[in-house]
Amino acid sequence: GQGASEASPHPRSAGESHLNTYTWQEIQRHNQQADQWLVINRKVYDVTGWADRHPGGRRVLTHYAGEDATDVFRAVHLELDVVQLYLKPLLIGELAPGEPSQERHKNSQLVKDFQELRKTVEAMNMFDANLGFFFLHLAQILILEVLAWLTLYQFGSSWHVTIFIAFLLTISQAQSGFLQHDAGHLSIFKKSKWNHLLHKFLMCHLKGLSGTWWNYGHFQHHVKTNIYPKDPDSKLGPYFLVGDLQPKCS
Fold first, then answer.
1. What pLDDT sits at residue 26?
2. Which of 96, 113, 178, 235 could be a cystine partner for 21, CB 3.0 to 4.6 Å?
3. Which residues span the membrane (predicted)?
């Protein structure tokens, strides 16, 4: 999770005084990969041409085509003033005055409760990370990695040394997995770029995996959690049955 400004990131400017207005019925028709509209804070954006350049991947936007993306937008963007520079050219209109802020089938009270909860935890500074904790976490990982290599250098590759090194690296890799998760969520530093740098170091250099690959999949998981088949973590068909019935895409 990350902290965000209480003020709306989309203040009305003089140039927005004559925006086109749309109903949800019209917006929801633009829900295809080649035609994607979405709503953020009652503003309507055409993201069709932007989708391939979206840093979080095309599929995150496709999953919200024709829908309200206000809360998930705030959850995954730290620096709203920077993101607004990219949103402004995509703005095509706003919801008509009589339209609800979310799609009509959504539970408006549930959405309101969630937004109030976010305001509460922001006021309690629960999105402020303890950098000392994360520094010690990273130090532990690096010490274990270095110790494993020094052990190999000093004592060779006999079977008992190999088992000891495997034990050290198992702990290190598991801890790297937890730490890269927090960095990938942009949850450690206030600036996105520092989170991205730490994430790339942990994933690409310590774990030997693609940070971008992980982000593209994990972002989908959080924007559409447990919604089949949009959440890639729910696609366990060949291996596990989750629930009483095998899910299928209609």
1. 96
2. 96
3. 131-152, 158-179
Distance of CA 120 to the CA centre of its chain: 21
Neighbours of 66 (CB within 10 A): 18
Return d(Cα 100, Cα 172) in angstroms, integer: 49
**What Cα–Cα distance (Å) separates residue 109 from each residue in 24, 25, 100, 105?**
18, 21, 12, 12
How many angstroms separate the CA atoms of 210 and 219, rounded? 14
pTM score of the predicted model: 0.79
Question: 91-95 and 43-46 as β-strands: parallel, antiparallel, unpaired?
Answer: antiparallel
For 215-240, what is each residue's pLDDT tens digit? 999 999 999 988 888 888 887 766 77
Q: What are phi and psi of 246, to 5 degrees?
A: -70, 120
How far is C-alpha 89 from the geometric centre of its chain's CA atoms? 23
- The rounded distance, in Å, linking the Cα atoms of 211 and 18 is 42
CA–CA distance, 13 with 24 (Å, rounded to integer): 23
Dig out the tokens for 3 from the structure: 């902290």
Q: What is the CA 10 to chain-centroid distance, rounded? A: 20
Q: Which residues have C-beta within 8 Å of that of residue 61, sequence separation ≥ 6?
A: 36, 38, 47, 50, 51, 54
Q: Mind listing the domains of the chain with CATH numbers?
A: 14-123 (3.10.120.10), 131-233 (no CATH)
Under DSSP, the state recorded for 68 is B
